[in-house]
């Protein structure tokens, strides 16, 4: 249970004692003064750190919408369920949000496996699901083309990998590349993709090595790569391992252009890698310094309100929630099927904070919005867009 | 050749951390006959304790080190109460199962209290270079083999020349006779656990400036330590020291010349071969009893 949830429970109890003859069933369902919307995120368990960051984006979007008069002349109330990045918990969470809270749409969730497990259920109930951080192409591929019920207002992991790989040979002008990736399926698919793209662009792969996620010592591997003198080194894996590799590269004196997979976009990566992260490049969907004017304004408001610089996770939570609220406003009702239709086709003019200037919630047939990723380079401990 | 020496140095640094963990493990096994699966958690908690003392409380590194030693000794004392005192006499396998349970409890307790976020001890030592011929190491890495030699040397002297050491060795050789000769078995068990935990905790603290610390790191280091203990011969301190360095060097060479993906495979392959050829370990002694 989240703090927010408890606070709401208190508010409901206060409301119930004030109102006469209110029965519990009526209190929980939609009321004339409140509009409940759904949020499902991993607030405990392995993805809890990410889940709480996304939640800040959801809460901020709701707060701003309420300051602008709410929706349908009602105050918007965010109902949040914790899915623990666990498919079983996710199924329980969406059922609760749909059956008890009668939400017109749900923003959720971070783990793609949980999205895939729950999107069929929300589809059966006729409730649209907006990604809370899930980026896997498998989730949007599970949509029936032309009839999507799951929406992700940013490009998939495949596009992200492609943009990153093209930057290695394009923007960084590397002719020779060494690849390091973890031995899980995530690492292998990234490694395959980068190898293919670099070769297609006329580059040469000097070496390709794997490591087990959580491995700690990379000094020998990096010493050997140093002797290969690559123009760039690509790292595909989790942020913690990537930070360790970058750190130890400085220790062994390997100085070259490092490019990492999308998972290394967090500030935790910079914190762990320390000064060694200078010059490190990573694909990103949002930075406060974005050329997207609407996004840059969001960044300022978010920092003033929440007290931290907005990042990719905050921005995507904000976008998904804002899109859902806007769809409710435009349909003029809480019928979830009409809201879905509005999201799928009616918001092509609605601006989003992620992506380049002019990016909008123009979903394609599979429920995805495609725009190029930014490639950020870390300068003085901050991801900078060139 | 220069590269080869650098690979060798990297292997010695990593191998030294294996030695520090494996020495405690082999001591507890050799003297008490307990296979302690919770040993990796001593390493993990030693790392967290050190980061807490040095970073959160801002104590100097030497004071933090003493704090880690005290904390690990207390941890060893408590572990002995659970793993040896309470369950051992009923059935020797009880302590193996309960040590596994203790590992799970400590890991999850660390997850709850500290959280899953990896941490690093930040020191100024990482910027100080040590150059020995063509070999280059940051000072914090170069200190690890030095600390290993000092600690294992001290342990060796303790076992060889002190009354406590003699009672420990007597217990290892023949517990029943040792008891008949007036050695206080309960005290020996406590000293063994405390020594083992201190070694693992100090290793965790030393490595926390080089490797990340998070609640699950114990899992991997304990596997490596078991590999070292089996290679070196169960219960042999010098065997563990030699085998630990050997494993570190072999891993480094594998990563350098065969590919990084093979390094863990090679270590465990060595265990299988050693167990087939020398079941008592390379440095283990077969005890002849009349």
Automatic annotation (TrEMBL), chain A:
<dbReference type="Pfam" id="PF13458">
    <property type="entry name" value="Peripla_BP_6"/>
</dbReference>
<feature type="domain" description="Leucine-binding protein">
    <location>
        <begin position="35"/>
        <end position="380"/>
    </location>
</feature>
<keyword id="KW-0732">Signal</keyword>
<dbReference type="InterPro" id="IPR028082">
    <property type="entry name" value="Peripla_BP_I"/>
</dbReference>
<dbReference type="GO" id="GO:0006865">
    <property type="term" value="P:amino acid transport"/>
</dbReference>
<protein>
    <submittedName>
        <fullName>Branched-chain amino acid transport system substrate-binding protein</fullName>
    </submittedName>
</protein>
<dbReference type="InterPro" id="IPR051010">
    <property type="entry name" value="BCAA_transport"/>
</dbReference>
<dbReference type="InterPro" id="IPR028081">
    <property type="entry name" value="Leu-bd"/>
</dbReference>
<keyword id="KW-0029">Amino-acid transport</keyword>
<dbReference type="InterPro" id="IPR000709">
    <property type="entry name" value="Leu_Ile_Val-bd"/>
</dbReference>
<comment type="similarity">
    <text>Belongs to the leucine-binding protein family.</text>
</comment>
<keyword id="KW-0813">Transport</keyword>
From TrEMBL, chain B:
<keyword id="KW-1003">Cell membrane</keyword>
<keyword id="KW-1133">Transmembrane helix</keyword>
<keyword id="KW-0472">Membrane</keyword>
<dbReference type="GO" id="GO:0006865">
    <property type="term" value="P:amino acid transport"/>
</dbReference>
<feature type="transmembrane region" description="Helical">
    <location>
        <begin position="262"/>
        <end position="283"/>
    </location>
</feature>
<dbReference type="InterPro" id="IPR001851">
    <property type="entry name" value="ABC_transp_permease"/>
</dbReference>
<dbReference type="GO" id="GO:0005886">
    <property type="term" value="C:plasma membrane"/>
</dbReference>
<keyword id="KW-0813">Transport</keyword>
<keyword id="KW-0812">Transmembrane</keyword>
<feature type="transmembrane region" description="Helical">
    <location>
        <begin position="95"/>
        <end position="115"/>
    </location>
</feature>
<feature type="transmembrane region" description="Helical">
    <location>
        <begin position="65"/>
        <end position="83"/>
    </location>
</feature>
<comment type="similarity">
    <text>Belongs to the binding-protein-dependent transport system permease family. LivHM subfamily.</text>
</comment>
<feature type="transmembrane region" description="Helical">
    <location>
        <begin position="225"/>
        <end position="250"/>
    </location>
</feature>
<dbReference type="InterPro" id="IPR052157">
    <property type="entry name" value="BCAA_transport_permease"/>
</dbReference>
<dbReference type="GO" id="GO:0022857">
    <property type="term" value="F:transmembrane transporter activity"/>
</dbReference>
<dbReference type="Pfam" id="PF02653">
    <property type="entry name" value="BPD_transp_2"/>
</dbReference>
<protein>
    <submittedName>
        <fullName>Branched-chain amino acid transport system permease protein</fullName>
    </submittedName>
</protein>
<feature type="transmembrane region" description="Helical">
    <location>
        <begin position="135"/>
        <end position="159"/>
    </location>
</feature>
<keyword id="KW-0029">Amino-acid transport</keyword>
<feature type="transmembrane region" description="Helical">
    <location>
        <begin position="188"/>
        <end position="213"/>
    </location>
</feature>
<feature type="transmembrane region" description="Helical">
    <location>
        <begin position="12"/>
        <end position="35"/>
    </location>
</feature>
């Amino acid at each position: 249970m989240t703090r927010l949830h408890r606070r709401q429970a208190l508010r409901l109890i206060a409301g119930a004692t004030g109102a006469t003859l209110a029965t519990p069933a009526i209190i929980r369902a939609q009321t004339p003064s409140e509009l409940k919307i759904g949020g499902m995120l991993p607030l405990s368990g392995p993805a809890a750190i990410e889940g709480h960051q996304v939640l800040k984006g959801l809460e901020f979007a709701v707060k701003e919408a309420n300051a602008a008069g709410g929706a349908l002349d009602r105050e918007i109330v965010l109902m949040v369920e914790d899915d623990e990045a666990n498919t079983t918990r996710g199924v329980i969470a969406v059922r609760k949000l749909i059956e008890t809270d009668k939400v017109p749409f749900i923003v959720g969730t971070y783990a793609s496996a949980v999205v895939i497990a729950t999107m069929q259920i929300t589809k059966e109930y006729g409730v649209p699901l907006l990604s809370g951080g899930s980026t896997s192409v498998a989730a949007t591929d599970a949509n029936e083309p032309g009839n999507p019920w799951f929406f992700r207002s940013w490009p998939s992991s495949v596009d992200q990998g492609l943009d990153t790989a093209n930057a290695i040979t394009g923007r960084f002008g590397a002719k020779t590349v060494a690849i390091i990736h973890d031995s899980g399926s995530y690492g292998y698919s990234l490694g395959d993709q980068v190898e293919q793209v670099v070769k297609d662009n006329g580059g040469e792969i000097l070496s390709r090595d794997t490591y087990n996620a959580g491995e700690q010592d990379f000094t020998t591997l990096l010493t050997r790569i140093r002797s290969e003198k690559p123009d760039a080194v690509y790292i595909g894996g989790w942020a913690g391992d990537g930070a360790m590799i970058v750190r130890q590269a400085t220790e062994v004196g390997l100085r070259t252009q490092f490019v990492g997979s999308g998972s290394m976009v967090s500030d935790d990566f910079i914190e762990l890698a320390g000064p060694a992260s200078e010059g490190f490049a990573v694909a990103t969907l949002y930075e406060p310094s974005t050329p997207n004017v609407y996004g840059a304004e969001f960044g300022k408001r978010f920092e003033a309100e929440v007290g931290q610089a907005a990042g990719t996770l905050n921005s995507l939570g904000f976008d998904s929630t804002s899109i859902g609220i806007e769809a409710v406003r435009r349909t003029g009702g809480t019928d979830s099927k009409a809201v879905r239709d509005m999201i799928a086709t009616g918001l092509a003019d609605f601006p989003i904070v992620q992506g380049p200037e002019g990016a909008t919630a123009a979903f394609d047939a599979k429920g995805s919005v495609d725009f190029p990723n930014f490639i950020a380079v870390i300068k003085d401990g901050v991801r900078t867009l060139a | 050749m220069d590269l080869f020496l650098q690979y060798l140095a990297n292997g010695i640094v990593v191998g030294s951390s294996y030695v520090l963990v494996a020495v405690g493990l082999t001591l507890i096994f050799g003297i008490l006959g307990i296979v302690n699966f919770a040993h990796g958690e001593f390493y993990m908690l030693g790392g967290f304790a050190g980061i807490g003392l040095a970073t959160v409380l801002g104590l100097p590194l030497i004071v933090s080190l003493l704090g880690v030693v005290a904390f690990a000794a207390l941890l060893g004392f408590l572990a002995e109460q659970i793993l040896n005192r309470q369950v051992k006499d009923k059935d020797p396998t009880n302590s193996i199962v309960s040590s596994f349970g203790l590992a799970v409890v400590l890991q999850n307790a660390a997850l709850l209290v500290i959280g899953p976020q990896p941490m690093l001890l930040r020191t100024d030592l990482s910027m100080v270079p040590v150059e020995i011929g063509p070999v280059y190491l940051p000072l914090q890495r170069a200190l690890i083999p030095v600390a290993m030699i000092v600690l294992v040397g001290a342990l060796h002297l303790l076992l060889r020349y002190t009354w406590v050491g003699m009672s420990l060795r007597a217990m290892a050789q023949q517990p029943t006779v040792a008891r008949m000769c007036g050695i206080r078995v309960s005290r020996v068990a406590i000293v063994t656990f405390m020594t083992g935990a201190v070694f693992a905790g100090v290793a965790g603290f030393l490595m926390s400036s080089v490797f990340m610390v998070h609640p699950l790191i114990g899992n991997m280091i304990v596997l490596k330590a078991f590999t070292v203990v089996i290679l070196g011969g169960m219960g042999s301190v010098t065997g563990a020291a030699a085998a630990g360095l050997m494993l570190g060097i072999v891993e480094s060479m594998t990563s350098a010349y065969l590919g990084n993906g093979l390094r863990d495979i090679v270590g465990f392959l060595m265990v299988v071969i050693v167990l087939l050829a020398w079941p008592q370990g390379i440095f283990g002694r077969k005890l002849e009893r009349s």
